[in-house]
Structure formats: structure tokens, C-alpha cells
Amino acid sequence: MFPMPIEKWKASNRILYKLSLPVALLIWLLPILAVLVTSVRSTDELMEGNYWGWPKDFAMLDNYREALTASPMLHYFWNSCLITIPSVIGAIALASMAGYALSTYKFRGDTLLFATFVACNFVPQQILMIPVREISVSLGLFNTVSGLILFHVAMQTGFCTLFLRNFIKQLPYEMIEAARIEGAGEWTVFYRIVLPLIRPALAALAVLVFTFVWNDYFWALCLTQGDDVAPITVGVAALKGQWTTAWNLVSAGSILAAIPSVLLFFLMQKQFVVGLTFGASKG
Amino acid sequence: MPAQTPAITPARPLPSDLATASKLRRRSSASRRNRAAIWFLAPACLMTAVYVLYPIFYTIYLSFFNWDGMMKPEFIGLANYVEMLHAPTFHVALKNNLTWLLLFLLAPPAGLIAALYLNQKVRGIRLIKTLFFAPFVLSGVVVGLIFSWFYDPTFGLLTLLLGHGVPVLGDPRYVTFGIIFAALWPQTAYCMILFLTGLTSINADQVEAARMEGAKGWSMLRYVILPQLRSTTFMAFVVTIIGALRSFDLISVMSSGGPFESSTVLAYYTYDQAIKYYRQGYSAAIAVTLFAIMLIYIVYQLRRLLRDEG
Lengths: 283, 310
Fold this sequence. Notes:
By secondary structure, chain A is mainly alpha-helical.
């Protein structure tokens, strides 16, 4: 193990290390803590200039109620849900099929196709901006939830395919062959044998893709206009423009925008990390 | 007299016949599988073709036109690129992209340091690791908001620490550094988690053997640990470089590329020209330039991947 395990340290260093941990954590998370504290601070206190001290009275309910009712925050939040959940399902559905085909069939151009999916992950989004807007407008999908969903599905499919293809490749191929000899059709093999086996990978992907889509700002800016279908990232950014002085409300909005991905991360931490580090420890 | 060739009436099918039959059978099952492959791949390919591949080529094509998004596009050859090369904002954006790239490369070493610091087995360390990683999960918009608030010259935390106000986001000299600093926060967290995972797969016997030989601290890290972390390090650098070139959200939220377009980067410049100034062709030319820069990494990454496959 590296560095040297702490049990083998000098006693004084061991204590110093343990004391340093909470201090480091406090400094590292100061931005988040500041926002949390501000989100429960009353407007009066902010007016008085108490920005950083401990809040004297807690106005949590007022602030969150204000953020939720005086601005369309709840509406934005709901839009984000409507956009994110189908996008995750769609991208994973398409990618698991594609990943299955790319890992179990040998055909001409399979490597090229796989390379294309991989390359799609690294394309700068801005090169897609104008044509994607044009496509959305001409299909009547501009400023609609479905327009955003379709795009996110397409954009995330590349990453998911890369991930799932490598995962399926590690499965024992004899199992698939055996099922075929038993007379199972290709769809049955995929649906009854492969899908259940890759469930852990699907969970890891779902968590990761959820946060990617939930946190998206650029495409929401490009493909929506006004409040109708704007997701919460756009909503929070707009909140800052409207109420530059009401930092307690902006903070409450930011917390709302962060809750789903932070919560998911804490609940599914293991899957999340598996997804992020995939490919990092081998190859 | 010509030799009579005996007429052969095979009692059993000849080996060649057998081969043909089995080839036929194999081909039919192969073609069935090929058909299945096509159906499995069709939806993903269709979506990718419509929303990723076609747009790339269309944008390249569009970069040779003058177009406001409504009137008929007018072919102007390389004029967009010529104009871009002479535009002061383009040079600012390029320089800022370079600054982003250089400073962002602090994230992998910082992440490694954090990972080494946290790689101990003490009570509560799992929770601490988790909390250290939390910034990465936040949206760029939220990170941008938090830091713009930190930098506020009248009441921000920075002002409190320094004792006087510095308009970080309002000063062309500081704005880019201020935004990069904010972006390094989640990026370091990401690199940290990569290295923490990498450290768990370190060969313990080798570390022990090196320790017997007297290796410790820096020399141990340099000659024993880092070589074993090579693929993790590579991954950390790739995601960091791509992240640096992609920077958009934080700039958009914190400064909108300002003041006086001093904090713009190619990604933001592209967006600005298309959305604010309706200059689609010119915007396309900038996007193609950004793509060309990123292509270096895409090709590099793909070659590595295909080599591993072969």
C-alpha cells in the first residue's frame, strides 16, 4: 500500500493526520457550505451585510418557499425531470443494443463503426450547434421537451455504447453460443441472457448519464427559448440575472438544482465511481 | 486409344460437396446474424448519424458561407477563416484556451496529491472521500454561481480574506484566472477519484519489495507507484485536456465572455457569434477550428484504442 499505512506512522503524525482531515474537508467544501448557510439566511440579514457569519435566525422555509413560488423554479425542476429521465432510458436502450451487436457479431466495418461511436464522445459540442438547431426547427422540435430528449439520447449513445460494448465483451461468449444452439433467437439471447448479466453496468451508466443530462446547460440554451421547457440549470442562471441581490434565493435555487444529482451520487456512489473510472485502470 | 476415364458415381457425397453444404449452412446463419446485427445497430446509428455525424459535415460546409440564419446562404470561400484570423477576439479566445489548457493541467497532479492524502484506512475515511468528490457532481451553472458570489468585490469571501475588494470578474486581467480557478475545483475532484481507484490496484508485493530495498517517499512514488498508475494518469490527462477545451458553462454564467470579450474561449465565441450576432457561417468557421484542435486528441485516443483491440 502506498503511502505507508498510518498504523506504522509515529504517534504524533498519526494524530496530526487525523486532525488535518476535517480541516481539509472544511476548506474543500467551503463553497458548498457557504451556499447551504446562505440559503437559510433571511433577507434582512443580507441587507445588514451579514453574508458570512452564522445566521441569527433561520429563514429556510421562507427562502425555499419564495424560491419555489415567486419564481418558476418548480416548473424548471419538473422540466428537468421530464427531459432527463427519458433521455437516460433512451440512450441506454439504444446503446445496449448497439453494444451487444458490436461485441458479439463479426462483420465488415465493425471496428470502424465502434471507432465512430468512440470518437463522438470527443467532438466539441459547438460544432453541432447550428445544424442541430436547424434540424430541431425543421422538425418542429425546437423549444420542446422531445427535441431536447432526442438530442441527449443521440449525444449520450456514443459514450454508453463504448462502455457497454466493452462490458459485454467480457461476458463468457460460450453462454451466448449455447443459447443459440438451443434455438434461441437473437433478440431472445439479447433480452433474456445478455441484459440481465449487464445489469450492474446499466446501473452505473444510468447514474452517470443522469447527472450529465441533468447538469447540461449549453443545449438547454441552444434548443429552448423562454420558460416553457427550460430546465433548472437555465432557471438558476436566470434567477441570478433577476435577483442579483437576493443571494439567499439564488442559493436556494442552486441547492434545488444540485439535489437530484448529489442525492443520486450519494445513494449510488459505487456505481457512479465504476462509471467514471471505467477504462482507467486497464489498457 | 484414348484412355477411358472411368465414370465416377459417388456413393457418398464428395468432401467438396460436404464443404459446400456446410458453407451454405454457415453462410445462411451468418447472414441471419448479420441481419440481426443491422437491426440491433440501426437505432443507435440513425441517431448518431442525424445528430452528430451529419452536423459535423454540415458545419464544415457552412463555414464557407455567409449566412445570417434566414436569408439564402452566400458562398464566400475561405473569407470566414480569413476574417477570423484577423479578428482580435479570435486571438484572445485562442490565448485563453491555451491558458485554460495549461492551468487545467494542474488538476491531475492536484488530484494525485489529494488521492495520496486520502488513501488511508482510518475511521470515517469513506465518508470523507465521498464528500471530497461531491463538487464534481455539481452542475457548471451552480459552481459558476457559487464562485461569482465568492468573487463579489463588495461582500465576497475573497474580499473578506484580502481586506479589500478585487473585481475579479470585472477586470480583464483576472477574469480568466478567476474562472479557471473555479473550474479546477470539480476537475481536481474527478482526477482524485481516478487516482484513488488506481491506487487500489497497485501491486502490494512490489511496493513491499521496494520498501525492503529502502525506497520511500518521492523515489517510491517516482519509480514504483507512478509507472503502475500509467493508464490512470493517461486517462486523467485526457479528460482534463478535453474538459479545458470544452469550457463553456462557467464562462457563460460567470462573465458571458466579458468584460470586453476578454474571457471568451473558442467554444463561447462560437456560441456568441451564432446566437447573439446571427453570424452562422462565421460561427461555423470558429467551431471547425476548435474541432481541428480537438481532432489531435481524438485521433490519438482512437489510435490507442484500436491498438489495444488489435
